[in-house]
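Title: Comparing notes on inverse folding

I've been comparing how different people in this forum approach sequence design from structure. To keep things fair, I'm posting one structure and asking everyone to reply with a full sequence. Here's the target:
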């Protein structure tokens, strides 16, 4: 069998290595430049590849094409393959054929990375033989080669789901659906929602779909009457049988034989959105028969991915939090809403057409200082000049941290949550977050 792989990143190279390991004839093609580390992997496995072009004749001679998620269906090579009725699938679909492990698959517009990492943490700490893969940045196909795990926790983007057909999750999680990437879905929310719901396709009566019952777009798109598995809704809007819900500082699971009550008072996660993420992860852990005590203990030790409401230091009873990943207003709303202490807020960068009005009341209630970090801060200043008592501006993250330290009092939080892209002063949001962390360590923690 001949397999052509489009894209030579983590996903494509992983699929190529698995195909080679299974004795298939493999060819890899990438329109861009391939990273040296990936070239090395392909060369070591004696897998032929090309970069900077797609050789149509060679690719279309394949029996099947595995497409990396970043390549749209409207790409010319994909269109031609479809015309010729050559199957085009995702790396996840391909990997699923070569393992008997069970999959716990997590998707959603927001929160999927946190939920994936937390779910993995809860299961691993409970002693399950579990691997982590998918959109989180690790190839499922490459991990399947070793066949070491009984379970995989897999983060899935809508782009990965679009080319999955026979693949089945044992437990699927859908955190929420809000408008995103609509250019790939003909600007249709219905089509985007349908893509997300593919996470629950092919399920049988022994499988579970864990979903956010408070999300209007999920409620509109999910047809429970046509679903073969067990639906497990989670909600912040009240108790009920067959649900997962928050009651005080406890999460209660009231689902068939999987009942539990988990103390979340020592959880490291902040904010309402993380209550949803935690409910989803706890639901999975209970469905995997992890004890309430083991879940509560693991919640205390969880460390979220970098740059997502990440505490980076405490000095003189002032907490410094790196939320550089918050590049839109919605993410900042969750940060401001979740922090109960007075806030010195560092924001700004490249504005993406933001409407800051939804942040005004939270800022009025909680923000004592706004430090605008960016080359053009007019919009932020105009919105919050009558709302926040002190507004300053700078293009130096070191100065932003130094000023924040001087204005903070015991019990305050210094929060980097920009609401903007980073490209005016930094390479990306990771670079911005790392620079903030370094400034806190240098200016604050060493004093």
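Reply #1:
Here's my take.
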């Amino acid at each position: 069998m001949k397999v052509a792989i489009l894209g030579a990143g983590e996903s494509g190279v992983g699929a190529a290595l698995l195909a080679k390991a299974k004795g298939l004839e493999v060819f890899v093609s990438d329109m861009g430049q391939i990273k040296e580390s990936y070239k090395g992997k392909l060369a070591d496995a004696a897998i032929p590849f090309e970069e900077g072009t797609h050789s149509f004749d060679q690719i279309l001679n394949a029996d099947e094409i595995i497409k990396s998620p970043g390549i749209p269906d409207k790409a010319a090579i994909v269109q031609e393959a479809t015309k010729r009725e050559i199957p085009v699938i995702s790396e996840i679909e391909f990997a699923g054929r070569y393992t008997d492990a069970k999959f716990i698959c997590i998707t959603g517009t927001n929160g999927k990375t946190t939920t994936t990492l937390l779910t993995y943490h809860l299961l691993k700490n409970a002693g399950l033989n579990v691997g982590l893969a998918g959109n989180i940045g690790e190839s499922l196909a490459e991990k399947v080669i070793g066949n070491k795990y009984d379970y995989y926790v897999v983060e899935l983007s809508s782009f990965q789901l679009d080319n999955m057909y026979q693949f089945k999750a044992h437990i699927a999680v859908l955190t929420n659906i809000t408008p995103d990437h609509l250019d790939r879905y003909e600007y249709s929310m219905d089509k985007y929602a349908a893509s997300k719901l593919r996470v629950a396709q092919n399920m049988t009566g022994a499988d579970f779909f864990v979903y956010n019952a408070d999300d209007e777009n999920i409620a509109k798109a999910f047809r429970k009457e046509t679903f073969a598995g067990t639906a497990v809704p989670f909600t912040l809007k009240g108790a009920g049988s067959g649900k997962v819900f928050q009651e005080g500082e406890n999460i209660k699971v009231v689902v068939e034989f999987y009942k539990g009550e988990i103390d979340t008072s020592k959880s490291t996660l902040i904010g309402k959105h993380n209550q949803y993420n935690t409910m989803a992860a706890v639901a999975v852990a209970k469905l995997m028969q992890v004890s309430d005590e083991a879940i509560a203990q693991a919640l205390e030790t969880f460390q979220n991915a970098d740059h997502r409401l990440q505490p980076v230091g405490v000095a003189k009873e002032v907490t410094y939090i790196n939320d550089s990943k918050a590049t839109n207003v919605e993410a900042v709303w969750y940060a401001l809403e979740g922090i109960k202490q007075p806030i010195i807020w560092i924001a700004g960068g490249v504005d993406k057409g933001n409407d800051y009005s939804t942040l005004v009341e939270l800022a009025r209630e909680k923000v004592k200082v706004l430090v605008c970090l960016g080359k053009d801060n007019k919009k932020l200043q105009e919105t919050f000049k009558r709302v926040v008592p002190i507004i300053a501006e700078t293009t130096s993250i070191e100065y932003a941290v130094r000023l924040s330290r001087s204005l903070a009092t015991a019990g305050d939080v210094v929060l980097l949550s920009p609401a903007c892209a980073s490209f005016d002063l930094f390479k990306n949001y990771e670079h911005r977050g790392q620079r903030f962390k370094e400034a806190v360590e240098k200016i604050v923690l060493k004093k």
